[in-house]
Design goal:
- The chain is built from one helix and 15 strands; from the N terminus they run ββαβββββββββββββ.
- The protein is an all-beta fold.
- A hairpin with a 4-residue loop joins β4 and β5.
- It is globular, with a radius of gyration of 16 Å.
Length: 164
């Protein structure tokens, strides 16, 4: 059995798995709309064009979980990155492992978003489905859409418990 407690979600710590999508991670900003808005530019490396794929933008409503929570599966997407950004201010957990054809359970890492940070999983990075805390949460999703099987799932054969 593995018990995981989350570490803060930072761009540096999350880099092996993808991008943190938030204002603090912006490398370029500029004023727009007659100085009525600031654009935080190029926050994630969206990579969705494999197999003739195109960019798909969706909304997801995800149910909150109670901790401790047992993770029973992981997934990855071989043909494109996958970005999730919360539309509320609700923290969520991010369970990930490095890109590999086979999941290495010993390389699982757990992060916690402050509710204003999103994540962009690199193509091939293992991850769990959304794990909002406190209450149900809405997310905007940017990912690959094509006529292919872009989701590989595996059931965990080791008990993995997530807790704060």
């Amino acid at each position: 059995m593995r018990e995981l407690t989350p570490k803060p979600l930072t761009a540096e710590a999350f880099a092996p798995f993808g991008d943190v999508v938030d204002i603090e991670s912006a490398s370029k900003t500029f004023s727009m709309n007659y100085d009525m808005a600031t654009r935080y530019y190029d926050l994630a490396d969206v990579d969705v064009n494999d197999n003739g794929g195109k960019t798909c933008i969706s909304l997801v409503k995800s149910k909150a979980v109670k901790l401790p929570f047992e993770a029973t599966m992981m997934e990855y997407h071989p043909f494109g990155s996958q970005l999730f950004h919360p539309l509320g201010d609700i923290p969520f957990l991010i369970l990930v492992a490095p890109p590999a054809e086979k999941l290495d359970i010993d390389k699982l890492e757990l992060f916690i978003s402050n509710g204003r940070q999103g994540v962009n999983y690199r193509k091939g990075a293992w991850h769990h489905y959304l794990i909002p805390l406190q209450e149900d949460s809405d997310f905007i999703v940017v990912d690959h859409i094509a006529d292919d099987n872009n989701c590989v799932e595996t059931e965990l054969d080791t008990k993995v418990i997530l807790k704060l």
